[in-house]
Amino acid sequence: MERLENLLKLGSLVDPLLEKYVLKDADPEFHEALLYPIRTGGKRLRPALTLAAAVAAGGSMEDAMPAAAAVELAHNYSLVLDDIIDHSELRRGRPTVWKKYGLSTAILVAVHYRESIAQALNDTRDPKLFNEIMARTLKLLTEGERLDILFEQSGRSDEPYVVERRRRSVTLADYLDMVYKKTGALMETSCVFGALSAGAPAPVVEALGSYGRSLGYAFQIGDDIIDIFGREEVTGKRVGKDVEEHKLGNVVVLLAAEELGGREREELLAILRRDAVDAPSVKRALEIISSTRARERAEELRRRYSEEAVRALSVLPRNEGRSMLETLAEFVATREF
Amino acid sequence: MERLENLLKLGSLVDPLLEKYVLKDADPEFHEALLYPIRTGGKRLRPALTLAAAVAAGGSMEDAMPAAAAVELAHNYSLVLDDIIDHSELRRGRPTVWKKYGLSTAILVAVHYRESIAQALNDTRDPKLFNEIMARTLKLLTEGERLDILFEQSGRSDEPYVVERRRRSVTLADYLDMVYKKTGALMETSCVFGALSAGAPAPVVEALGSYGRSLGYAFQIGDDIIDIFGREEVTGKRVGKDVEEHKLGNVVVLLAAEELGGREREELLAILRRDAVDAPSVKRALEIISSTRARERAEELRRRYSEEAVRALSVLPRNEGRSMLETLAEFVATREF
After folding, report:
1. Nearest residue, CB atoms, A127 vs list B84, B112, B128
2. Which of A166, A204, B52, B242 yields a CA-CA distance of 20 to 30 A from A31?
3. Per-residue confidence at A298, pLDDT binned at 50, 70, 90?
4. Nearest CA in chain A to B84
5. In chain A, what is the straight-line distance between the N-terminal and C-terminal CA atoms, in Å?
6. B311 touches A: beta carbon within 8 Å
7. Chain A: nearest CA to B57, how far in angstroms?
8. Contact residues on chain A for B132, CB-CB shorter than 8 A
């Protein structure tokens, strides 16, 4: 089994390509802002998935490079816009794009990224097919983000669409549907792109897609756990940000609310519904959540999806690619950042 | 020669396709917001260009339909984002998308539109080529919008990128460069898409692209004239909005500033540099501008580019398509809305 550090370096193999596609057709005066999202780090998990999936499917990493670049660009594209939508000021321990450069520039950077994705996809084995899959995937991401916003319990009073359609109750099934769209779909596509780059037959493409889908659930559940229980110096993000952002669409908050009885449940929901959630309120919410089995149950769920991901690989021959995907699933099941 | 009303109906032939691509992979709860931009009107000039160019190149409108839908979707995509960037509250006499639904929803609508473009392009004659051209075109649009913003003389004090890079002087050449990118590139692509949909040879593609490029200048100069001298009840937009938005990148403002001597030139520029340009200031700016030959010179420039567009068609055989493009150029040279 590959060591994790090597695997996370794997994704970075696409860095030169990312820069190539991002700088294509760009004015030199715009370069700095364009490079900012991809030069401020990131785990490069999605391109690692594409490259490992290509090898697992019997192909070469080389053939999967443009597709791997495309999924990492798609990830960064969505982050730049999500940070605008969520008013997030910090990512990876640094100012977000809109915070650093301003709203207009952030929007222009995002638009430019989307075109860099198209340019990368045009260098894949089958541009039409890859473009079609990416379009569907990014529409799913949009829908996932729309639901994530509607699951917020307050805020956005200047956004009529959200105010009128907010969900007052969110079930675990609602949550999982949102998570597949917001996170799972792109991980699925990352793996499918690897398989297709290798020219794999349909059952292999399906198995790797299924792995990516399950991994997506595990990954997002991990994100939710880290948001509530993470350590700022490790994560580069503020703890309890989801509570501040009124999110009932965090699995830990959701499971806590589900488990709690009358008064404390109401207190937790009341905090989420506050116009502005101050630091003492976040602290109190974390206390209430910590009094439940929500963390334990979320960890179980994360573990279960990670195992499901690994099981989906069982139809594949044992090779280095499959082994890399297994290690990545283990990383996703246990990561703290 | 075709009558103008019929020509503007021509573009509306793509309406069913626009709705098809926009509603593809969309949740029913999202439909209303997604349909809003395309159902609130618009001249459908770009799809008319694509369809007319296809006929001019000896092809059929039918073959050019997906490409025509793609360019109109691209236009709407850019409008949704431009209205966010410019804080515009009114378009076509109605609230803009962000004003009606909120910022997050507007961003999600825009992202969804971009994917609908990709889906439309996948139904063209050569998806890889059409995708490549669209990606380059949308990167140019981004660059044009970036320059347009940098040509503003005040505002965006919360946007460090803009504040640090603002242009203190803008020449006519700078303006034309910005306009090609912001407006001309997509009109050029609209015509090129028509030609390519018809399977036209390179010189025909080039001639039609050149027509679209010249038309783009004429169109944007017209927009600038209408912004300063238009009538609100005809245009659906507020008069003098560009002055309010501190834009030196409006050709009428630019030509006035160029022509004016000392005191009045300084007064006009001082208005553009005010933090908030109030109604009396807009009125005063319009007075100053009206005292110059800027309107006349802008009209001459518009006419010249429109004629240049028509001249580019001279290599094509006289047919109905070419005749439609000539009528469209006449419309662009004289339109008041």
Report:
1. B128
2. B242
3. very high
4. A104
5. 22
6. no
7. 25
8. 118-119, 122
Which of B114, B137, B149, B177 best probes binding to A when mutated, by most A CB atoms within 10 angstroms? B114
CATH dotted code for A4-334: 1.10.600.10
The two three-digit tokens of residue A267, written as one number: 């207190």
By three-state DSSP, how is residue A297 classified?
helix
Name the residue among A72, A325, A78, A70 with its Cα closest to residue A212.
A325
* 8 Å CB contact of A158 and B102: yes
Q: What ipTM was estimated for this complex?
A: 0.96
Interface of B with A in 164-203 (CB under 8 A): 165
For A178-215, the pLDDT digits (tens) are 999 999 999 999 999 999 999 999 999 999 999 999 99
Residue-wise pLDDT for A4-49, tens only, equals 777 778 999 999 999 999 999 999 999 999 999 999 888 999 999 9
As a three-state string, the secondary structure of A142-168 is HHHHHHHHHCECCCCCCCHHHHHHCCC
Tokens of A68: 């791997």
Q: Tokens representing A26?
A: 């760009």
* B131–A131 C-beta distance less than 8 A: yes
Can you give the residue ranges of every domain in chain B?
Answer: 4-334
> Could you tell me the sign of the dihedral formed by the alpha carbons of A108, A109, A110, A115, in that order?
positive
Contact A111 B84 (CB under 8 A): no
Strand spans (E) along chain B = 90-91, 94-95
Chain B residues touching A24 at Cβ < 8 A? 139
CB-neighbour burial class of residue A209 (10 A; exposed 0-12, middle 13-18, buried 19+):
buried
Q: Between the CA of residue B4 and those of A100, B16, B210, B217, what are the distances in Å?
A: 48, 22, 22, 20
Which residue is listed with tokens 């990312």?
A: A18
